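Structure first, sequence second, as always.
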């Protein structure tokens, strides 16, 4: 006999856990089904070296931002161990000497740092920051907006489009023009409009290419920059970047504890292979071991190709929707390199292996826009980057729970290798790529290579086959213009509902997705709860009508 619940959540990543917590909080008997041996998905803390279990790393995602205060408060995450240490400055040392630090909340120090490279750019920086803050006032709330089905003539969809237009009725011509530029420009062109110094532009270009199959000269990367930079605005917006105590797995653990506290059941090693559809409605799932689990509500938080094409099948979906999912772009080229160090990097530009401010934020390998673009072009031409780009962090500057005293973790989110590397392991080539990445840092901090105690390399193949990130894409789909807002994951289905009645969708491939924010899981659960309430009201009306 099949087990029966009110709600099933497929996928125990952070979005799945958020969805389960809200569903259970609403009173639904909820179960989470996670295929791996542990929850967390890409937000996971692991010990990848069996011979050294005392060394733990955040294996994939590596910093927190964009999680709405509403989720943190509703789920009481602080009580369950959610503890964020705000990051220090962006830091880039340069091969020919000198360095630059950029701060999230210290305009005076930014002016001093940028002045080392360009007095004009230093004077421009406050206007740039103000411009980003103004855009955040538009884009921040938009991240929490359920996209309407633009173009639909159904009354509910028309009402949603009108509400969106009314909410933004105060936007002036200049703001709309700025948003348009942001959506369509490359981060390289945008920065050229503002700044002159290659050092400053390199530092500011970083957020435009994180996790993206696009170099800084590609249109649309200006929006990717804004998507990531919203988290840097501060109080009144969506939060600052920071390190979770215990690694990113600590975020997932806190959400899981909240879900369990509301009564949700969480199962690991419970891989779903098929969705059960009865009379056009989702009614349950089949597990890899053949067990069936039934529920009137199913929320999937897996990659869209897995959730729809594998678990349901294109033949059981509307042709247009199936075609949209089949053509969903999910390239990456990302390689995550995790290092355990016996001492901190000793940068020639800022000497000392003692803990200093420049160790506490992002430790970049992005000396110029041209450097980043060359790394992408290498991969686009079919070879791994000769000199890779990296967004590096050292979370143990704050977090003492990952490694024993005296050691540090350096987490390198690097790009690019060819997008096709998700199809084969490419183990030897990844080792050589990691060697080159470390060599690049070693040129700036000559003690780095000798300080490495352990290293862990996660390429696109492992990301896809172990963690379900198809193509190795951390966003479950590229943040390109044709895959944003009402197009995410398909036109007409961006409201976290699907063509299958009773099936809701809350992965990072939906609007708000990208980063460990929980927005997709929250919105998918909200849609399911709202539909359940509406059905109950409709049933009550029908009963009253029958009586009368």
């Amino acid at each position: 006999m099949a087990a029966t619940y009110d709600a099933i959540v497929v996928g125990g990543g952070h979005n799945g856990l958020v969805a389960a917590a809200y569903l259970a909080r609403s009173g639904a008997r909820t179960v989470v089904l996670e295929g791996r041996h542990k929850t967390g998905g890409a937000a996971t803390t692991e010990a990848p070296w069996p011979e050294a279990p005392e060394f733990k790393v955040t294996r994939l995602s590596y910093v927190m931002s964009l999680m709405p205060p509403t989720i943190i408060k509703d789920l009481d995450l602080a009580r369950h161990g959610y503890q964020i240490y705000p990051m220090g400055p962006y830091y880039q040392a340069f091969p020919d000497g000198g360095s630059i630090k950029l701060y999230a909340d210290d305009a005076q120090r930014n002016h001093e740092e940028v002045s080392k490279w360009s007095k004009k750019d230093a004077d421009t920086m406050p206007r740039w920051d103000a411009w980003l803050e103004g855009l955040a006032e538009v884009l921040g709330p938009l991240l929490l907006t359920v996209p309407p089905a633009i173009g639909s003539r159904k009354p509910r969809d028309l009402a949603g489009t009108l509400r969106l237009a009314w909410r933004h009725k105060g936007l002036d011509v200049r703001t709309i023009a700025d948003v348009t530029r942001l959506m369509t420009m490359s981060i390289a062109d945008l920065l050229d409009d503002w700044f002159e110094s290659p050092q400053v532009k390199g530092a500011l270009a970083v957020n435009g290419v994180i996790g993206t199959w696009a170099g800084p000269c590609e249109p649309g990367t200006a929006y990717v920059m804004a998507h990531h930079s919203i988290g840097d605005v501060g109080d009144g917006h969506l939060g600052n970047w920071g390190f979770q105590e215990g690694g990113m797995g600590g975020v997932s653990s806190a959400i899981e504890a909240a879900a369990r506290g509301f009564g949700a059941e969480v199962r690991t090693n419970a891989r779903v292979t098929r969705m059960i559809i009865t009379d056009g409605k989702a009614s349950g799932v089949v597990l890899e071991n053949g067990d069936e689990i039934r529920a009137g509500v199913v929320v999937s938080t897996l990659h869209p190709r897995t959730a729809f094409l594998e678990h349901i099948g294109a033949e059981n979906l509307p042709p247009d929707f199936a075609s949209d999912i089949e053509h969903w772009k999910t390239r990456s080229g990302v390689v995550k390199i995790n290092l355990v160090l016996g001492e901190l990097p000793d940068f020639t530009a800022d000497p000392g292996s003692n803990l200093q401010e420049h160790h506490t934020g992002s430790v970049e390998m992005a000396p110029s826009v041209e450097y980043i673009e060359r790394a992408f072009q290498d991969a686009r031409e079919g070879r791994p980057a000769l000199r890779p780009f990296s967004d590096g962090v050292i979370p143990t500057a704050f977090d003492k729970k990952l490694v024993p005293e005296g050691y540090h973790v350096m987490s390198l989110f690097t790009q690019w290798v060819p997008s096709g590397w998700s199809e084969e392991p490419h183990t030897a080539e990844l080792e050589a790529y990691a060697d080159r990445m470390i060599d690049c840092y070693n040129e700036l901090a000559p003690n780095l290579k000798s300080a490495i105690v352990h290293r862990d390399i996660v390429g696109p193949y492992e990301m896809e086959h172990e963690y379900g990130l198809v193509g190795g894409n951390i966003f479950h789909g590229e943040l390109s213009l044709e895959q944003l807002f009402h197009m995410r994951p398909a036109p007409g289905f961006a409201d976290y509902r699907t063509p299958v009645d009773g099936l809701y969708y809350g992965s990072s491939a939906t609007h708000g997705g990208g980063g460990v924010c929980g927005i997709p899981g929250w919105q998918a659960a909200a849609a399911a709860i709202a539909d359940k309430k509406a059905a109950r009201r409709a049933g009550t009306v029908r009963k009253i009508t029958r009586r009368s």
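Margin note: DSSP finds 17 helices and 18 strands in the chain.
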